[in-house]
Amino acid sequence: MKKQRIVVGLSGGVDSAVSAHLLKQQGHEVIGIFMKNWEDDDDDEYCSTRQDFLDAASVADVLGIEIEHVNFAADYKDRVFAEFLREYQAGRTPNPDVLCNAEIKFKAFLDHAMRLGAEKIATGHYARVRERDGRFELLKGLDPLKDQSYFLHRLNQAQLSKTLFPVGELPKTEVRRIAAEIGLPNAAKKDSTGICFIGERPFREFLNRYLSNKPGPIKDDRGRVIGEHVGLSFYTLGQRKGIGIGGLKDKGAAKGGSEHAPWFVARKDMAANTLYIVQGHEHPWLQSHALTADDASWVAGVAPAPGAMAAKTRYRQADAGCALDGGSAAGFNLNFGSAQWAVTPGQSAVLYDGEVCLGGGVIASAA
What we know:
Layout: E1 5-9, H1 14-25, E2 29-36, H2 49-63, E3 66-71, H3 73-89, H4 96-115, E4 120-122, E5 127-132, E6 135-140, H5 157-160, E7 163-164, H6 172-181, H7 203-208, E8 216-219, E9 225-229, H8 249-254, E10 263-269, E11 274-279, E12 287-298, E13 307-312, E14 320-325, E15 331-341, E16 348-353, E17 356-366
Parallel strand pairs: 1-2, 1-4, 2-3, 4-7, 8-11
Antiparallel strand pairs: 5-6, 6-17, 8-9, 10-11, 12-15, 12-17, 13-14, 13-16, 14-15, 16-17
Helix pairs in contact: 1-2, 1-6, 3-4
């Protein structure tokens, strides 16, 4: 690759730090940008923005590159957080990382980098970009345990043409080794486990600040009231902990189930403000063979032809064989050969052809 000016999103983590190092090693002019995306309570114990910036600045110092601190908090609130709250209020479970990548990291950040005269941007995501016959493909990262193509599936041709993922070819163990070898101060820093505005804080406590909660009945699969929920927005399909129905062993045993079988959230009836829970991981209400997705986004710019492919309905999941039916910009239907567990409206259904990520959409319903 010819020498270019490349702006790297330095998050304070080890992956983006090593990405910047690898590009500098290749002879590129590298500039670091730290994105601040949240500031409502950034002095809070759960939000690590300040420490992350200090880590990013220390990395830039070691690497000998410039770093700029850019505040995208207003964009984030308008484009990501507002949608996040709308989805929860409607009873769905959104994935803000998907939206953040599409709206902030590869839109607001990309625009800013281009204004700095960058020819490309780079991030520490575990994914790859391949150009083939003038088109750009999004590929899985080579480390199967770290692949992040699921979160990047809404990127388009224009965005991919300007994007590099330097660590996408490497296993995480090698990234850590490189960081230690060159003396990066964050070589052993643990991976972030969430988005800044939630961080490690209790999730329900955080949502409580922004969403109205209307308590209602919790019912089992026979329609019996067995508790009270605190508001449907605070539960997600497949949830096992924090349902708030302690002491139900006898009821489970009385209806013929194992008294020790765990309870899971299985359905939400928004009209009746009722939460349905079932006992046992393999309960039929938790299994789906088909789904409908809306708001589709295709990496190639057009939907793939209907037919056999693979999909993920949540991030930490093996690819599942399926048949695509009716793909368009509006949405698509998927039919699975084997049942999928707790397919959740609001999450992303992402399609793959082998290692190539084709795009995806937002799950609207499952059956």
